[in-house]
């Protein structure tokens, strides 16, 4: 019995020594050297969420000041026909402008009345105010024996008639002006030659209108003139001085 207890005691001592030896032989890690660098270990806070109980703010829409209906849309209807924002009746027979001068609508009638008065007095034709005066086309000096005068109506062909004279001698009593030039040969006297071109009438579309071109005996253009809206009975004159 004593031998058995001795063996158990020896076995226990040997097992304890072996366990202590085994635990001393395990690997122990070497801690890292302290380099003096500090790290921030503070964990950032998560953003706070909007509380579910926060009230929802309704959007505010500003009224349109240019739309009168939006201002009164929330008002109760009224039986009065003169309420604010009601559209007026736009039916009219004339063009209106809210910012125009009220007297402007009478201007066309006044101009029409004036136009009729000028026409009745023979002071205006269809193309404007009639010229009621003689026209001077100036002076020409030449050694030519004769001139070739060309006349035409530069406007609409409406029946214009012209009388052609030289030193009060009638060369053509009545010349009908067309769209093409009509020629007249005028022999020149020594000294002064007064050439007159008289408007015998006004055409159906207005005053007498004519273009005149004068060439010498060498077919050189000496002058090119015209008259516009000349009244009946008035003349256009050219003074020609023939030199020897």
TrEMBL record:
Keywords attached to this entry: Signal
Extent of the signal sequence: 1-19
Name of the protein this chain belongs to: Secreted protein
